[in-house]
């Protein structure tokens, strides 16, 4: 993984994610250079300075996009706004829960992302899935070259990502669409809009909300109700298997970064084992899970494991992990795979230095890892890896 801040993994992870989402290294260098010294003070110190620098970088792109719009250069404006949105969400994600400017920046991010995608001509649609008296927000991208109902992959976040972040990383929706697979990138409870705008915290029994997603997709004429898969990124490596195990309508499952026993991992993090994904970590996890204090959080975390769950999965399932993941042990991937005893088609893929994608959720190379995953999904949902949609791919 590109480690811009040599002594600070958490800040460097944010930079690597921004690059994978389409950020430009020259713009990132201009924003990060003034932050080098403060980054040496640790994960938490200086995050407000991080916000100020990255928001300023995004604001500059917004101003340039306004000039493009005035001159009728709408595609160029859209491209700049898309990068501005990347910088805004990168800055917002690094802040402590309750830091007042965070809320305003998230609102600006949502507006910028939507306008950028529209001006750039991206074929995405916002979807709102009814849930608990309000909705779960998602980004839908249709399949390409498909006549009639298409297979669909639902992609869910981890602990600290949003649907837009995962949508941007490695051009994954385009990889799927080209293979004849529609996609929905979802802000499930505990993430993105669900958490920030509606106060929906994460739940251990993820099938509760995942079933509502399937209900919605099965009403769409452009989606084949029998070919809906689920993919989870990072902590989604827990959310996804749990949902697939207890919601039999999913046709397959994929984890992009295994997370077999996240509850156990919290005890290890208290002992300073493993890297953390965000600053202000313990405050962040209590916010995500709706825990008033550490005792309440640890009681919830005890439930977040897949022992006794993986054995219930009876559909094709892919477990992937980076060989050099510094956040979640590689052993967790083997645990999840070994317990897939009822799956008729299980596979364990460990990304190695030769192909890239060796760090957490492949943030060092989402393109290669994403293409490998997209091919695996297409081969099992009746998509294509070349040739004509619907023709089974060669093994």
Automatic annotation (TrEMBL):
<protein>
    <submittedName>
        <fullName>Prolyl oligopeptidase family serine peptidase</fullName>
    </submittedName>
</protein>
<dbReference type="InterPro" id="IPR050261">
    <property type="entry name" value="FrsA_esterase"/>
</dbReference>
<dbReference type="GO" id="GO:0006508">
    <property type="term" value="P:proteolysis"/>
</dbReference>
<dbReference type="GO" id="GO:0008236">
    <property type="term" value="F:serine-type peptidase activity"/>
</dbReference>
<dbReference type="Pfam" id="PF00326">
    <property type="entry name" value="Peptidase_S9"/>
</dbReference>
<dbReference type="InterPro" id="IPR001375">
    <property type="entry name" value="Peptidase_S9_cat"/>
</dbReference>
<feature type="domain" description="Peptidase S9 prolyl oligopeptidase catalytic">
    <location>
        <begin position="173"/>
        <end position="378"/>
    </location>
</feature>
<dbReference type="InterPro" id="IPR029058">
    <property type="entry name" value="AB_hydrolase_fold"/>
</dbReference>
């Amino acid at each position: 993984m590109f480690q811009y801040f040599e002594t600070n993994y958490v800040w460097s992870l944010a930079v690597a994610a921004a690059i994978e989402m389409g950020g430009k290294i020259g713009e990132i260098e201009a924003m990060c250079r003034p932050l080098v010294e403060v980054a040496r003070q640790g994960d938490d110190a200086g995050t407000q300075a991080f916000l100020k620098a990255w928001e300023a970088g995004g604001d500059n792109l917004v101003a340039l996009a306004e000039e493009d719009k005035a001159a009728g250069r709408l595609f160029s404006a859209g491209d700049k706004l898309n990068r501005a949105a990347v910088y805004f969400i990168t800055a917002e994600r690094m802040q402590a829960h309750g830091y007042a400017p965070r809320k305003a920046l998230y609102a600006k991010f949502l507006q910028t992302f939507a306008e950028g995608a529209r001006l750039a001509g991206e074929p995405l649609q916002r979807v709102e899935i009814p849930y608990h008296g309000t909705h779960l927000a998602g980004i839908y991208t249709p399949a390409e070259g498909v006549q009639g109902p298409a297979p669909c992959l639902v992609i869910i976040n981890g602990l600290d990502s949003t649907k837009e972040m995962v949508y941007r990383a490695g051009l994954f929706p385009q990889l799927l669409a080209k293979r004849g697979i529609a996609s929905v990138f979802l802000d499930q409870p505990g993430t993105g809009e669900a958490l920030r705008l509606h106060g929906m915290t994460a739940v251990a029994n993820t099938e509760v909300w995942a079933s509502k997603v399937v209900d919605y997709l099965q009403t769409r004429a452009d989606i084949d109700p029998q070919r809906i898969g689920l993919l989870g990124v990072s902590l989604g490596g827990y959310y996804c298997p749990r949902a697939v195990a207890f919601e039999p309508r999913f046709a397959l499952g994929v984890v992009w970064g295994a997370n077999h026993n996240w509850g156990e991992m919290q005890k290890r993090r208290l002992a300073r084992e493993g890297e953390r994904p965000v600053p202000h970590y313990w405050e962040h996890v209590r916010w995500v899970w709706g825990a008033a204090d550490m005792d309440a959080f640890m009681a919830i975390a005890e439930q977040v494991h897949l022992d006794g769950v993986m054995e219930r999965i009876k559909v094709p399932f892919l477990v992937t992990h980076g060989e050099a993941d510094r956040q979640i042990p590689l052993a967790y991937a083997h645990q999840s795979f070994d317990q897939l005893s009822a799956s008729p088609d299980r596979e364990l893929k460990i990304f190695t230095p030769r192909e890239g994608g060796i760090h957490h959720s492949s943030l060092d190379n989402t393109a290669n890892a994403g293409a490998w995953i997209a091919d695996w999904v297409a081969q099992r949902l009746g998509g294509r890896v070349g040739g004509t949609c619907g023709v089974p791919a060669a093994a």
